[in-house]
DNA sequence: ATCATATTTGACAAATTTGTTAAACAAAAA
DNA sequence: TTTTTGTTTAACAAATTTGTCAAATATGAT
């Protein structure tokens, strides 16, 4: 029996390539052949390392979910004041979106096709914490009076949508890559001004 | 040569079913067989009426695009004051989203796979008009000072995202259908409060 | 060097999906 | 009725995609 692998470069290579294709280039329907070609390996290796195409998909999806949740948790449970947390979250989100612009979209389409949620408990803990801090911020007059859920929806929407919808926006508004990057950079302040009263 | 058809019920039936599957249920990868089954017709009829699967897809996509643009145009070129136009737009969007929750998402994924835009000219005219009215509203202090493009992004994001992301949100936040409907209803006022200063 | 194990490859089989064709069927026109 | 036109079906062919298997190759340990 072998518990260790001498060279798992290929396995990692395949997984990363799949990640890049899905999240980086939006090729949600990439075939095993396309993935193998892009990774520069034989197609059969995908079956060898991951048993099936679906298994590979699930794995990439799970990893992404975990990563995103950890990232968010580390911000939300930090010692930063509420408003700074949101700023941090925006920064992180845009950074992520720069490398993997289609990730959010992929997550949604996966959920649409009946996908379960991984660490539900962790998410609940985080939401609870958020709700508490949100109440305080609202009392302080930092935020317009509203249900916390509405604030969350506002926040996620303002951050994620322009990233997920980028190709649509760019084409509709005739914006080149450089111009859109600038707009996204400017957005951090815009979002903060939109979310907070003062 | 035949310019008229005695009974185009089947053709319409297929098109509507495809529309429902794509936009209503989010089955973006539905096969011709699935579409035919859902429509209760023989699969070959899809080829008979639309020549190929792709042609059917293109047609449904084009129709949806046209419809959405017409809808928006009729509001934007109406005699309503700026703020009322936005309200109208929100109402229309939510109504649309109720029947076809996955439409926005579908549009984006189509654009991601390199799709052209239909009536570019019409869109440009509309944007120009919007920019003009936006400038006025900003001068009047109705809106925080920002680039019009940022306002548009804010608006579309706040409206469309919670609709497109509904399955994700609902599962994450443990909300049943009724509760989410209520949240969407409440959102109109929230969005207006978020977009406008007074 | 030999052996055992891990990795990679090519060839093949199976499944899925799409598109074509010829024939059956229905309905209106001649 | 016969003909014509339009519609629907079943059977087939082609293409695509996935998964399996045995053989080939590499790599490290003995």
TrEMBL record, chains A, B:
Keywords: DNA-binding
HTH tetR-type domain: residues covered: 8-68
Transmembrane segment boundaries: none
DNA-binding region ranges: 31-50
SUPFAM superfamilies: Homeodomain-like
Xref: InterPro entries: Homeodomain-like_sf, HTH-type_TetR-like_transc_reg, HTH_TetR
Protein name: AcrR family transcriptional regulator
Organism annotation: Flavobacterium arsenatis
